């Protein structure tokens, strides 16, 4: 079997997909179920149909595209990722796994390979938490990690629920039906940019993921007292933003103090009310995203943060309310998928690094129902979630080639 990746074609598709964006190039913004995202999805489905894949969408908008195997009733082998993009992102996050996955399938088709198990390319719906405050909605539902009832009620910043938004975007059917049976996939493998600097630093072009870090996220509401920026004396203030500032630094200190580089904590949203130059902030709404490869350590850091939060609330006479959005457990990648990736690398003589994924991925949730693995390629300076995110064409093509080899092994 001679596998060849059409690097030029793959690059040109990647550039075209980047034009479906609500940001000025090179930035890409593609928030799920916006008109831009729906156009990108339609374009993507057309590419899959061109490749002869049978396309279907489920009720949350996960796109399944299938190349039937010799035994179509046998569990499928899945690959894929996402094409939604956070505000002011780059062109590679998720997209490399979707277009690279499609090119891997086309390379297998061109080689004359005939899979025994069907091969499916998935485009997961709403991997990014931008719109509904929680990431991986599509894969959470498909794996049964989140209930249909809980998902339907999630709201975007305009107060529109998932249920309303998906119906408006013409996704019919019941969210309950998104869940897949445990035997649906024989294996799943996701190609993705590393989103960190380790491959580049090691000068190694491929990473085989051993485990995926566990994310938790919270919404935090701080309520103090507003008032006139000139009139209210400093000793009388209950400034919600000053409390927020102190809490953000306490979060940073707690993450540093865990003693492990794998503990990371980020406050990425901070909404100040009323947001006027001459008005003391009375309310702040913020988010905390905290991750670790070790669940117990993450829980320990959370305890430290909670204690700090209570201290700050008492000292500053503000209320600080915490609402848990999600607290997920880490996942180990499946030995058989790691082995398929390892064999595929070795077949081509490509060196690889075994590594941890500090970012979360749909694979974290697919791993709850299927043996799952991930393949990383480097991205320049480890940059991701920013417009200058970049992966070299030869690295993308190499990733697609190794993925194709692994899909062949898993579906033979
Ligand atoms: C995914 O985009 C993540 O935040 O890890
Ligand atoms: Mn992302
Ligand atoms: Mn991603």
What does this structure look like?
This protein is an alpha+beta fold and 412 residues long. It folds into 2 domains: 7-213 and 330-411, Aminopeptidase, CATH 3.40.630.10; 214-327, Alpha-Beta Plaits (2-Layer Sandwich), CATH 3.30.70.360. Helices cover 36% and strands 24% of the residues. It contains 12 helices and 18 strands. It has helices at 7-18, 35-50, 95-111, 137-142, 148-153, 162-168, 198-202, 240-257, 295-316, 335-348, 362-366, 393-411, and strands at 28-30, 54-57, 63-67, 76-82, 85-89, 119-124, 185-193, 207-212, 214-223, 227-228, 264-266, 270-273, 279-280, 283-292, 319-327, 331-332, 353-357, 372-377. Helix 1 packs antiparallel against helix 3 (95-111), helix 1 crosses helix 12 and helix 3 (95-111) crosses helix 12 (393-411). Bound molecules: glyoxylic acid (GLV) and manganese (II) ion (2 copies). Residues 86, 93, 128, 385 line the site of one manganese (II) ion (MN).
List the defining traits of the structure above.
alpha+beta; nine-stranded mixed sheet; 412 residues; single chain; binds glyoxylic acid; Aminopeptidase
